[in-house]
Amino acid sequence: MSAQSYASRAETHPTVIGRHLLSIISSKRTNLCLSIDVTSPTKVLDIVGTLAPKICLVKTHIDILTFPPDSPLSIPEFTSALSSLAKEHNFLIFEDRKFADIGNTVSHQYGGGIYRIADWAHITNAHSLPGEGIIQGLQKVADALPLSPQGQPEDTARGLLLLEEMSSAGNLFNSSGYRSSTLEMARRNKNFVMGFIAMGKVGDEKEGEDWIVMTPGVNIASTGDALGQQYKTPEYVIRERGSDVIIVGRGIYGSEDMLGTAEEYRRRGWEAYENRIKA
Ligand code: 6AU
């Protein structure tokens, strides 16, 4: 379990984007990532605009948004509006793309197509199932991003999370060796892999390892949904299991008082962290 503060890890994390995220978490006192699985682009921007002070990260699924011909926003207009909100309110953007193909294919999916994910998402994620080429294919795109003349290094720094575990019922991540092989793959690519999607701490802190772990399947009002999602509380995830970031979707945007509920998740996630580092 990490007893180190977010602030001290913000000085030493091996990736630029990891240091940047940890410093946002520390200065805004929030380890809450808002996951926003609604399908209207304008609604996404409205919700993010309202909840921005409470969050360190917004997690998108760009491919569930609908952009009909009469849509008030094009895809680039949407991503540029989201990027402006991120700059203004000091949070990062995580596109939950869960890449899962060979390196050559994912490089096109990440850098091109209609979404151009690498241009606007600071963080994305991938399955380790296809082997290490997936990391190399994504990193090639990230490394080729141009830095704007007045930009900061973190503006175009990119990071990858590997899926080490999932929250859904009956997932196959416990099959022998899968999780340890995923960790080994991350260890060989430390300048791009910043951490994991997992249910709790990953890696060996005594060996100086520092992975940022983000945990989905967090809800304080429900234990699951009808399609296999399984929920835990912020206290369990952050304090008991040593994760760093809670990812919350329907628990927040499905509630009547979104701002009040987001504040409750922020406070509980933050207190769970403070209790962990003091323990
Ligand atoms: O809070 P929810 O249940 O409304 O949304 C959870 C979000 C969804 C999922 O695609 C995502 O978290 N997710 C992931 C991620 C982040 O990779 C992995 C996982 O194991 N479980 C999960 O729910 O947008």
From TrEMBL:
InterPro entries: Aldolase_TIM, OMPdecase, OMPdecase_AS, OMPdeCOase_dom, RibuloseP-bd_barrel
CDD domains recorded: OMP_decarboxylase_like
Active site: D96 (for ompdecase activity), K98 (for ompdecase activity), D101 (for ompdecase activity)
Lineage: Eukaryota, Fungi, Dikarya, Ascomycota, Pezizomycotina
Protein name: Orotidine 5'-phosphate decarboxylase
NCBIfam families: pyrF
Binding site for substrate: D37, K59, S167, Q229, G249, R250
Top EC class, one word: lyase
Family listed: Belongs to the OMP decarboxylase family.
Protein's pathway: Pyrimidine metabolism; UMP biosynthesis via de novo pathway; UMP from orotate: step 2/2
This protein's UniProt keywords: Decarboxylase, Lyase, Pyrimidine biosynthesis
GO BP terms: 'de novo' pyrimidine nucleobase biosynthetic process; 'de novo' UMP biosynthetic process
Catalytic activity: orotidine 5'-phosphate + H(+) = UMP + CO2
Single GO MF annotation: orotidine-5'-phosphate decarboxylase activity
Ranges in a coiled coil: none
Residue ranges annotated for the Orotidine 5'-phosphate decarboxylase domain, each copy included: 31-265
Pfam families recorded: OMPdecase
PROSITE patterns: OMPDECASE
The organism's place on the tree of life at top rank: Eukaryota
The EC number(s) this enzyme carries: 4.1.1.23
